[in-house]
Amino acid sequence: MKYIDLRSDTVTEPTQRMREAMMDAIVGDDVYEDDPTMKELEEYAANLVGKEAALFVPSGTFANQLAIFTWCNRGDEVILPHDCHVVMHEVGAASVIAGVQLRSMPAINGQMNPQMVKEAIREDDIHYPETGLICMENAYSDGTVLPLEHMQEIYAIAKAHDIPVHLDGARVFNAATALKVDAKDILRYTDSVMFCLSKGLCAPVGSILAGSKEFIAKARKKRKLLGGGMRQVGMLGAAGLIALKEMRLRLIEDHDNAKYLAEELDKIQGIEVIKDALDINMVFFKITDERLEAQLTEENFFKNGIKINPAEGGLMRFVCHYYINKSDIDKVLGVINEMRRY
Ligand SMILES: *Cc1c(COP(=O)(O)O)cnc(C)c1O
Description:
Blueprint: E1 4-5, H1 16-24, H2 36-48, E2 53-57, H3 60-71, E3 77-81, H4 85-88, H5 93-96, E4 101-105, E5 107-108, E6 111-112, H6 114-120, E7 131-137, H7 148-160, E8 165-168, H8 172-179, H9 183-187, E9 192-196, E10 207-211, H10 213-225, H11 234-245, H12 251-266, E11 271-273, E12 282-287, H13 290-295, H14 298-303, E13 306-307, E14 316-319, H15 326-340
Parallel strand pairs: 1-13, 3-4, 3-7, 7-8, 8-9
Antiparallel strand pairs: 2-10, 5-6, 9-10, 11-12, 12-14
The structure holds pyridoxal-5'-phosphate.
Pyridoxal-5'-phosphate binds near residues 137, 141, 170 and 207.
């Protein structure tokens, strides 16, 4: 049975085209930099985001942590939004791997206050750590995108203090789609960027870290240190190329579907959609009716062929992706309306 899976865009399996490309991929030992398909992916990815070089890594968490590990020395401080992925969802890795201190700043929809960022940058004092890095995240995991002006402002502050900037761009192509700009226009305001191939872009595995040639050469060695040097990885590179060349161009469909889902959900009594968090492929909503809340459980959805995640902090999240079409959404709405009757 095919489930309608609204839990995340990470559930997307590789498409038929990807599977065929993977089967036919020309490969080599990538630790020797001998894998032509992986080289092609890394070059294509670097070009696409306007950076000199790129590196394939196993996951988004790996890419973020590798960036921090490459930019920072032990004991450095990293300035970043308090509820970003690196702080909330990476198992405290920055303290274990890079040995840095996270200076998390109050943020609204991922936007730190520029004045506070400026003041958080450490001066030269025997008591202070060095500020090693500033991180932003775009699109933000709360379903919003950072405006370019905000990124530009934070970047200018960083540059005035000679501090590098890293962007967690797990869904940077969703951000570009929402902002109606080229990804390069976003990545102008960051020295390194990571993005996921395995979310809405449907590749089975992998993320890309991109930056200057010098930065990526250092990161390549640290990737090896972390056990992330991979061999015939062009198998995955072949899927990654299709992700970037083809699947990237259809993300707007997921955004449109999310807007449709949001509009229709909001019409249901007892459901309140968070309307200012609809920039990308996610819909966040509250259930304001206790009886309905008792019905909208993972189990009840599952019985109807739908997979959802439980509410987090009182908010439900439904995520649209390649394998969710309009008729799937209509089915979900039908199931919820049916549950309302109990
Ligand atoms: C998914 C995600 C990551 C991490 O990616 P994994 O491949 O799951 O490790 C990092 N940052 C953001 C914003 C994400 O959404």
